[in-house]
Amino acid sequence: MMKRLVTLGLVCLTLLSPVSPAFADPARIKDIASLQAGRDNQLIGYGLIVGLQGSGDSLRSSPFTEQSMRAMLQNLGISTQGGQSSAKNTAAVMVTANLPPFASPGSRLDVTVSSLGDATSLRGGTLIMTSLSGADGQIYAVAQGSVVVSGFSAQGQAAAVTEGVTTSGRVPNGAIIERELPSKFKDGVNLVLQLRNPDFSTAVRIADTINRFAAQRYGGAVAEPRDSQEVIIEKPRSADLTRLMAEIENLVVETDTPAKVVVNERTGTVVIGADVKVSRVAVSYGTLTVQVTETPQIVQPEPFSNGETAMQPQTDISVMKDGSNVAILNGPDLRTLVAGLNSIGVKPDGIIAILQGIKSAGALQAELVIQ
């Protein structure tokens, strides 16, 4: 017997009335903006992982692994003359890391390794010395150490189990910084703050808050908003940039962001911002379920007849309609909006359909982002 279910969502909307403005939340400048001179820099390198228990690259399928092995051994003064090796205890990997701002030579950072060939697992391996370069081609760090893999895999003759990703891992504190970045923080003449969530209102409030502080401390305004993302702060003559940044980053600002509703239809996730408003609207949501059941019957011929056994198809179709309630939504705040949606008793996929319908009706006072 086979069953097929088809579910149809029906949404009916009626627009009624308008809504009130959004509100702001207080936050420190260091939590909503970052220093332009204090950004990370990405590093990349190519290396080998050795010591794997037969889970490395097959050298025939990954010729670059064998070439790297031969080049490494030649650099160590070992002759590589002879036949091809069939061992699978080595894997070629790409090594990546983020060089933090103001990093000094001798400090350490974590690196991530990812398999390039057909290795099945990097568990138990050791990354041998690998240089990490920046976008300018200069070497800024050298990585080496034991690889930590969170996933695992087990395989037998008739079954296999895999959990997580076994072809990538991390080397905690595996890289040593060898070169510092060329820029010097204290050589600058100003500070540039970049908002993590660009917004004109927030940028103006940051500049006003900094200027009120600077007027009391240095006797004049020092900050100016350039656009929705950047705020320029000029260095006062009597100020030290490090101390100035330490004082500014702890100032509290009233933030403001556009109202958004983020919907992921694949996972059924709905994220509603605190500033989202919904005009008064009537919503009717009904779920129509169609169930198709196949119960074929075997038809036998009569005794001593020349008939043949046959299969006779039989299909039963049933239709069920649930959830025909009508609710009035009026969302002056997030709690009221969520309570109104829950009162209808629909699942997340139904809420997604309702939000799309409310947006089409012009009652959703927010940006609807569908992922």
Please tell me about this protein's structure:
The protein is α+β, with helices and mostly antiparallel strands and 371 residues long. The protein has three domains: 2-22 and 260-370, no CATH class; 41-177, no CATH class; 184-255, 2-Layer Sandwich (Alpha-Beta Plaits). Helix content is 18%, strand content 42%. It contains six helices and 24 strands. It has a six-stranded antiparallel barrel with strand order 4-5-6-11-8-7. Strands 1, 18, 21, 22 and 23 form a five-stranded antiparallel β-sheet that branches. It has a four-stranded antiparallel β-sheet with strand order 3-12-14-13. The longest helix is centred in the middle third of the chain and has 18 residues, at 200-217.
In short:
The protein is α+β, with helices and mostly antiparallel strands and 371 residues long.
Strands ordered across the widest β-sheet:
4-5-6-11-8-7
Protein structure class: alpha+beta
Multimeric status of the protein: single chain
Low-confidence stretches at least 5 residues in length (pLDDT < 50)?
3-23
Helix and strand pattern: EEHEEHEEEEEEEEHEEHEEEEEEEEHHEE
What is the end-to-end distance? 37 Å
Radius of gyration: 32 Å
Question: Beta-strand level of the residues, as a percent range?
Answer: 35-45%
Q: What percentage of residues falls in helices of 4 or more residues?
A: 10-25%
How many helices? The count is: 6
Give the tally of β-strands.
24
Largest beta-sheet characterization: 6 strands, antiparallel, barrel
